[in-house]
């Protein structure tokens, strides 16, 4: 992740001692395990903590600004600050029933960095994702629409992300270059047909048009990076969400689009019925809004596929494959190639919803 050494147990104990928290006074750190994702600058640590008179408990310590930008490089100046802004605001308390964050989140400012300390939610996050669970997720995320109505001016907060569907448009040039290079790569030339390559070029070039369409849609509070590794259903059916760096304001349907786009890439099993998911989400959203928003939801969903999904896959995703960053295992490479192909083709199947095809 970074050449910067991760904090050791003594350093973490010092940070915890600087502010009272649910970990308890006199907390000792028994072990530290690095969980940092490879494509993020954040340091993410699983920490076993013991306080006098209590049993050891598992916590997550996240330091969003620890490392350097990676291939993803969102060009978002607040990306490394936003999750701390989120947990330091009253928004988590406004989340509707059926949505949750990890318990006891606390933000500590130490040596110019934000440290986010929260209960470890691995037991919920490590569930198996199925089409039925995805359908429940569609129902659970629709009420995010109601959060904006809970407090006047909430969606105008300056720290919220805007136009997250365009967060990776700076990868479009690389996407074009990667598509052009496929014909000269024996391993990758069969990834798409010439007609599909042309259609993908067209979609990449349509970013400004798609952004204009998105700006016309009804807006909602969005998680902004919703996919199976950032979510889990607890035994009672509540949807727990982590990694709020992209929380913001976006078009209705966007969160569902990102979830579906990355469903198979991040371990989801079975085939999703995308129209059925849209119907469940759209009906729940329309009931909250008191108006039929299903046509708008379909457009927002399609835009997520055609911008966020394509820009990530054809930019840093295909670049990583071409640079051999996925190792030498044929099985691992095949899985990445399958996601690139299937994800891009599913995006193309939604182009007509935005009048691109």
Please give a structural write-up.
The structure is a single chain. This protein has 357 residues and is α+β, with helices and mostly antiparallel strands. The protein has two domains: 9-120, Phosphorylase Kinase, domain 1 (2-Layer Sandwich), CATH 3.30.200; 124-354, Alpha-Beta Complex (Aminoglycoside 3'-phosphotransferase, Chain: A, domain 2). Helix content is 42%, strand content 15%. The chain has 13 helices and eleven strands. It has helices at residues 9-17, 79-88, 91-94, 122-125, 131-141, 144-150, 172-181, 194-205, 207-215, 254-261, 274-289, 294-322, 330-349; strands at residues 28-34, 43-50, 57-63, 99-100, 106-110, 113-119, 161-162, 219-222, 231-233, 239-241, 248-251. A five-stranded antiparallel sheet has the order 1-2-3-6-5, with helices on both faces. α7 (172-181) runs antiparallel to α8. The longest helix has 29 residues, at 294-322.
Question: What would the keywords be for this entry?
Answer:
three-stranded mixed beta sheet; five-stranded antiparallel beta sheet; Aminoglycoside 3'-phosphotransferase, Chain: A, domain 2; Phosphorylase Kinase, domain 1
């Amino acid at each position: 992740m970074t050449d910067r050494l991760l904090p050791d147990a003594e350093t973490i104990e010092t940070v915890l001692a600087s502010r009272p928290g649910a970990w308890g006074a006199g907390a000792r750190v028994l072990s530290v395990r690095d969980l940092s994702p490879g494509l993020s600058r954040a340091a993410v640590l699983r920490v076993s903590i013991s306080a006098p008179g209590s049993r050891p408990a598992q916590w997550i310590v996240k330091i969003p600004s620890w490392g350097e930008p990676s291939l993803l490089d969102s060009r978002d100046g607040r990306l490394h600050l936003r999750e701390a802004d989120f947990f330091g605001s009253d928004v988590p308390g406004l989340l509707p029933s059926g949505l949750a964050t990890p318990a006891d989140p606390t933000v500590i400012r130490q040596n110019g960095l934000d440290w986010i300390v929260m209960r470890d939610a691995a037991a919920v996050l490590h569930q198996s994702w199925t089409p039925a669970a995805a359908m429940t997720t569609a129902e659970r995320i629709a009420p995010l629409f109601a959060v904006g109505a809970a407090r006047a001016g909430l969606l105008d907060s300056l720290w919220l992300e805007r136009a997250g569907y365009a967060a990776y448009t700076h990868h479009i040039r690389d996407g074009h270059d990667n598509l052009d290079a496929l014909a000269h790569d024996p391993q990758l030339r069969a990834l798409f047909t010439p007609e599909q390559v042309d259609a993908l070029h067209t979609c990449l070039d349509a970013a400004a048009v798609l952004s204009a369409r998105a700006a016309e849609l009804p807006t909602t509070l969005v998680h902004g990076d919703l996919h199976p590794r950032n979510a889990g259903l607890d035994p009672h059916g509540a949807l727990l969400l982590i990694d709020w760096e992209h929380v913001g304001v976006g078009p209705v349907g966007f969160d569902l689009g990102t979830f579906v786009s990355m469903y198979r890439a991040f371990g989801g099993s079975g085939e999703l019925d995308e129209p059925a998911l849209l119907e469940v989400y759209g009906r729940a959203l329309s009931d909250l809004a008191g108006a039929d928003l299903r046509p708008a939801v379909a457009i927002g969903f399609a835009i997520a596929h055609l911008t966020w999904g394509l820009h990530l896959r054809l930019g840093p995703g295909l670049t990583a494959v071409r640079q051999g960053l996925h190792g030498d295992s044929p099985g691992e490479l095949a899985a990445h190639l399958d996601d690139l192909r299937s994800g891009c083709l599913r995006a193309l199947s939604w182009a007509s919803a935005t009048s691109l095809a």
